[in-house]
């Protein structure tokens, strides 16, 4: 990639572009600087249709407004993070900001200003680059380097929110009076401007509200989750088709294959893909993905496509790399399948959130007792939690814009609540026999199995959004055989 023109002295790097003199840039003559100011067509767009979720984002802002009357609410998108010099890590807008605006621009900030009957929303954004002062081609954030941005007027049409220049926001916030709350952790500059106006406790209440607001998904969100699952299923098919190439290289081939699908059809992967072959399946968050892929072993693939509107799937399949489970692999796999079936059946409106976990854990505990790995009865095992040596993790979590969605919700609103239509959660029991676990028969060691699907609570039960992918062991084998041809 090309390098920026850099100012001659480090001090000048600190100055905003408009205070720099063009002549100070090496190789930029006054004549060139003057020449670059003009001769550009007007590309302003008019009559733009609003984004598809504009009505939903307005309703979300209205709910937020009703919860915090009379208070100024500040929700930043976040800033770019430098990787080194003039390169940045890939940017992903904060979930709170994208949820409330539909926008994903770095440095954006949503502000709800209290007015007599609620709030007035304003979105603060970087405007188009100035051509007059050379910013557009001399500054690293100039549009010539990073691409055309929407003008503030264009952003207003798209988002349905009045837009202002974000470079004016810090000063405005410093001058503002009255109670303020901000979402923390995304924009240090905004937080510094508010430092003597906000408290951690009050800001946390805002974060909790925005987490709980996302527990029940609206129609737009459900459609996005459906898209995420459909893309994810295609990504899993891509992986099965190239398992021979992964055998010749490493787990990285699987990671790269799934990532291609995620980038082509969506925004990204929703979390680091877990491409765990053989005993790596027993490492719950195996994301190094640098191991060998061997026929005869299992591949535990836990991956999800994040859509362009930032909703992610979270799906796991545990596949026999050579297309056929061994007897012991099948025995363990089928036990996890049975546990997942019991878990999914417990997902319905009015059920306690904990029910699906309990249902799946009971099946797994029964199997472990049956196999002689732990002494029964099953009630004793469950009471003491002895099955957890091999089940290791909870059976699921809320899913949405974050893979572990609604994570700031209060216990009473999440794990102690009852399920409602529109909630979406994963059901993902597993059994993991570590390679060095001397308490299990040798043939079990190094086998890890998880099966994970994304389950939407409906009016009369549930719908499995990721059911494009087979789960039963014989159906997995038939599916793989058909894909491999
Ligand atoms: Mn999960």
From TrEMBL:
Lineage summary: Bacteria, Bacillati, Actinomycetota, Actinomycetes, Kitasatosporales
UniProt protein name: Xaa-Pro aminopeptidase
Matches recorded under SMART domains: AMP_N
EC number(s) reported in the record: 3.4.11.9
Catalytic activity: Release of any N-terminal amino acid, including proline, that is linked to proline, even from a dipeptide or tripeptide
PANTHER family found in the cross-reference section: XAA-PRO AMINOPEPTIDASE 3 (PTHR43226:SF4)
InterPro entries linked: Aminopep_P_N, Creatin/AminoP/Spt16_N, Creatinase/aminopeptidase-like, Pept_M24, Peptidase_M24B_aminopep-P_CS, X-Pro_dipept-like
Organism this protein belongs to: Streptomyces omiyaensis
Alphabetic keyword roster: Aminopeptidase, Hydrolase, Manganese, Metal-binding, Protease
């Amino acid at each position: 990639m090309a390098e920026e023109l850099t100012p001659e002295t480090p001090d000048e790097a600190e100055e905003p572009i408009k205070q720099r003199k063009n002549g100070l840039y090496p190789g930029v003559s006054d004549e060139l600087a003057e020449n670059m100011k003009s001769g550009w067509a007007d590309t302003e767009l008019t009559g733009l249709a609003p984004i598809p979720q504009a009505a939903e984002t307005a309703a979300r802002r209205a709910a937020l407004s009703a919860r915090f009357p009379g208070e100024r609410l500040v929700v930043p998108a976040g800033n770019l993070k430098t990787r080194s010099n003039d390169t940045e890590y890939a940017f992903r807008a904060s979930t709170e900001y994208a949820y409330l605006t539909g926008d994903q621009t770095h440095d954006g900030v949503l502000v709800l200003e209290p007015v007599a009957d609620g709030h007035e929303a304003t979105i603060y954004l970087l405007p188009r680059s100035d051509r007059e002062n050379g910013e557009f081609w001399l500054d690293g954030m100039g549009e010539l380097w990073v691409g055309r941005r929407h003008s503030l007027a264009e952003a207003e049409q798209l988002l349905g929110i009045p837009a202002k220049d974000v470079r004016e926001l810090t000063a405005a916030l410093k001058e503002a009076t009255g109670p303020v709350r901000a979402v923390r952790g995304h924009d240090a500059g905004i937080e510094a401007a508010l430092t003597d106006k906000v408290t951690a406790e009050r800001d946390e209440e805002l974060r909790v509200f925005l987490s709980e607001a996302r527990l029940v998904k609206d129609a737009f969100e459900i459609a996005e989750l459906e898209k995420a699952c459909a893309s994810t299923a295609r990504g899993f098919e891509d992986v099965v088709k190239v398992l021979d190439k992964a055998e010749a290289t490493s787990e990285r081939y699987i990671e790269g294959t799934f990532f291609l699908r995620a980038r082509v059809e969506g925004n990204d992967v929703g979390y680091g893909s877990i491409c765990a072959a053989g005993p790596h399946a027993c490492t719950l968050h195996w994301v190094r993905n640098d191991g060998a892929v061997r026929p005869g072993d299992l591949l535990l693939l836990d991956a999800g496509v994040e859509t362009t509107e930032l909703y992610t799937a979270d799906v796991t399949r545990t596949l026999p790399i050579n297309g056929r489970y061994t007897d012991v692999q099948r025995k363990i796999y089928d036990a996890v399948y049975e546990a997942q079936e019991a878990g999914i059946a417990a997902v319905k409106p009015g059920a306690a959130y904990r029910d699906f976990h309990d249902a799946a854990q009971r099946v797994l505990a029964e199997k472990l007792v049956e196999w002689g790995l732990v002494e029964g009865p099953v009630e004793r095992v469950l009471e003491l939690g002895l099955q957890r040596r091999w089940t290791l993790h909870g059976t699921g979590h809320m899913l949405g814009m974050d893979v572990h969605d609604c994570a700031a919700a209060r216990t009473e609103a999440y794990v102690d609540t009852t399920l409602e239509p529109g909630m979406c959660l994963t059901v993902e029991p597993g059994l993991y026999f570590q390679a060095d676990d001397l308490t299990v028969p040798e043939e079990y060691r190094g086998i890890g199995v998880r099966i994970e699907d994304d389950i939407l609570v409906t009016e009369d039960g549930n719908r499995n959004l990721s059911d494009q992918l087979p789960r039963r062991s014989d159906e997995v084998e038939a599916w793989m055989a058909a894909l491999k041809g």
